[in-house]
């Protein structure tokens, strides 16, 4: 019995010993074979793996003019665990910071994404070449301090800031989403820089350097045979005409508004002007944060991308779209006439109109921008119970045609900030007025581009392109060519509207007469057949907005354009002459002597709102 007990104890003790041995062996196997942590730590003592950043892709305009290139910059990197012997005061004096600021920055590093005391962390970014040279002379004294070479953007024109966008330091969410980035990296924040970041950024390289027992760099490992060369980003050619862009920004100085210009045949964007604007170079280098803060605080909001994001009632420019819908639905023919007695009148409702001949048929109604014509036509369609079973059905048919003309949804342009505008559906009015309790007169203002209708300047310019093409468009886009790559297939797909081609000719003829003997006559160009449509969009917050939509030439058109000048009154007064000057500049390369006085008037005008700065 005693022997059995003894034997059992031996077995238990032996089993426990074997278990402990197994646990230790398993742990050693995990540490040495499966887990790379200790190997990485050992490697970090012997090697310094230095990232080699690629040069970012160049950006050129449609004519090959260089818009954005690169210039060298230098970041001060520190490996926190190697700073034990650093002469802090001498280091701070060398780079021009106080000891307190040094301590503050070191403390802040610990809370940034990707922090590790074993790897280089960005202490100070974007040193100038002069500061870099001064630091380099003393770098051997500062163990744990390294220089990381990078590139900054260099802008060759003070234009197109929001189109091009800028680059800035990545945040935690970006690092988490994309393993390409580490703490201190930079990426496109908006504009083309953001949309085409994957192509512009290139591929990082790696340089393996040897350390000595004290952690000092002794040179390349095995003569650099294991180094990986960085691969430069792809160059991008924009559809933008930088000279036209610059001219547009000049015309829009001291004004609030936008210009969007498109090549109808391709959908390529020729100019996107947002006013007020700024020089893109102010968001480069050490002053970026301070300058960005100033832009954010500017009450005129120069960071707001108006051609893409501002949503306005399109006003009378929208009458061309309504004309097409009414023709397609056979509510009217080109010969249909409606009377106008200084406006549209129905019971106690009046929609005013300026004096002109009456009655008018379709083409003259566009020429003279008759409100009564489109109110009457819209009412006839929405209240037609022979063709549509109820108001909601009629309105949905109308809305679907308008959507096919590029309104109500994002067009899909390659700019991050695009908004969709707004085209309501019948359910919106059912909710406001009650199902079955509204009709054409209830929402009559949408017939002239007011009411709930909202559109971006890009959408209005795209309508001009659709009419110029007589019924189709390509998604507006800014990139014309990518080095060793192709642009998105969506930009090559022809989008045909729901309106038959034959109806566009009547609208084109009306827009032609607008410029020859209509509301746009004062902005005509003698040598170019321009087709245009003025618009004055009501603004509940102040003066009306001046709008103009056009394309030219009438046949084989090369440019479609929309101009919006906020809080400035009639479309013919400001937006129309700006648009036709842009057209003339693009097609002719110069402004005719007869139009120089118009150009001078626009260049010298100050339409900026008065801002209360007393607070």
Write up what this structure looks like.
It is a single chain. This protein folds into 2 domains: 191 residues, Penicillin-binding protein 2a (Domain 2), CATH 3.90.1310.10; 363 residues, Beta-lactamase (3-Layer(aba) Sandwich), CATH 3.40.710.10. The chain is built from 21 helices and 20 strands. A hairpin with a 5-residue loop joins strand 8 and strand 9. With 615 residues, the chain is α+β, with helices and mostly antiparallel strands.
Overview features:
615 residues; alpha+beta; Penicillin-binding protein 2a (Domain 2); Beta-lactamase; 20 strands; 35% helix
Largest sheet: 6 strands, mixed
Proportion of beta-strand residues: 15-25%
Coarse morphology? elongated
**Rg measurement, Å:** 33 Å
CATH fold field value of the largest domain: Beta-lactamase
Please write the CATH class name of the largest domain. Alpha Beta
Unreliable spans: none
**Structural class, judged by helices and strands?**
alpha+beta
What value does the average pLDDT take? 90
Fraction of residues in H or I helices = 25-40%
CATH architecture of the largest domain: 3-Layer(aba) Sandwich
Name of the CATH homologous superfamily of the largest domain: DD-peptidase/beta-lactamase superfamily
How many separate domains make up the residues? 2
Number of helices: 21
Distance between the termini: 99 Å
